[in-house]
Amino acid sequence: MTVDPVQLSMLALQLCAGGLVGAIAGYGYFTALWWNVRLIDRGATGRALLLLAARVAALTLTLFVLVRFGAFALLAGAGGLLAARRVLVQRLGDPS
Q1: What is the signed CA dihedral for 19, 27, 37, 64, rounded to 10 degrees?
Q2: Packing angle between helix 45-69 and helix 5-42, nearest 10 degrees?
Q3: How far apart are CA 94 and CA 90, in angstroms?
Q4: 3-state SS, residue 73
Q5: How far apart are CA 2 and CA 91, in angstroms?
Q6: Which of 27, 34, 43, 73 is the 20 to 30 Å CA partner of 82?
């Protein structure tokens, strides 16, 4: 069985780009979620709803773009998203 170096490099590119894009998107999404909780706690429900809509739309668009690049890019993006969540939960802690 022969391994095609072009396909292998494309797979590596999908994994690296997907992971990086997912981590960046996750950082933005979970930082905005932290702000969202603070806004709700302060009683700024209207702003919190706008921020909720913006962060869900941005994440949806990001995942849609990743799926256009392939399944491996999407899976790596999901992994990057979860890695960013873990880092931010440890770093930001309780928002109140």
Answers
A1: -50
A2: 170
A3: 9
A4: helix
A5: 46
A6: 43
Helix (H) or strand (E) holding 78: helix 71-92
Whole-number pLDDT of residue 94: 61
CA–CA separation, 52 and 38 (whole Å):
12
Answer yes or no: is pLDDT of 1 > 70: no
- Residues in Cβ contact with 80 at an 8 Å cutoff, skipping those fewer than 6 apart: 18, 19, 20, 21, 22, 23, 24, 25, 26
For 3-54, write each residue's pLDDT tens digit.
788 888 888 999 999 999 999 999 999 999 999 999 999 999 999 999 999 9
Letter for the amino acid at 5?
P
